[in-house]
Amino acid sequence: MAGQTQSVTEQTFDAEVLKSATPVLVDFWATWCGPCKMIAPIVEELAGEYAGKLVMFKLDVDANGGVAAKYSIMSIPTLGIFRGGELIERIVGYMPKEALKKRIDAALMPRA
Predict the structure, then answer these.
(1) Threshold 0.90, pTM exceeds
(2) Is 97 one of the annotated active-site residues of the chain?
(3) What separation in angstroms does the CA of 61 have from each of 15, 26, 45, 51, 110?
């Protein structure tokens, strides 16, 4: 659905994230993580603002530890931006919406 974050799992990660034609932001989170709960509504808002330019998914690191380990996710929340099957940006920890938008916009800039 455009404008909303969706869940992704180890089983669906390759198809939904790595094979996506559109850049993807993955919110690596866990239910017990306080900063994850703080950033979640910001990620939801951004999903609406970036609809059509960026697909947003949430990945529960406790339920999907293999993916978290593969990308060396040590701290949460971590937001990973993937393009063409590659992790191109890693944003670790909580940050305000405007700071997050700057990091996302920079990651989405065409590569020279």
Answers:
(1) yes
(2) no
(3) 18, 11, 22, 24, 30
Tell me if 89 sits within 8 A of 107, measured CB to CB.
yes
Radius of gyration of the chain (CA): 13
Helices (H), the chain: 13, 34-49, 65-70, 97-108
pLDDT tens track for 4-61? 889 999 999 999 999 999 999 999 999 999 999 999 999 999 999 999 999 999 999 9
Region of 52 please: left (phi>0), alpha (psi -120 to 50) or beta: left
Q: Terminus-to-terminus CA distance in the chain, angstroms?
A: 31
- Phi and psi, residue 26, nearest 5°: -110, 125
Which of 26, 36, 42, 61 is catalytic? The answer is 36
**Which one from 24, 25, 26, 33 is the annotated catalytic residue?**
33
Locate tokens 């998914």: which residue? 57
Active-site residue flag, 36: yes
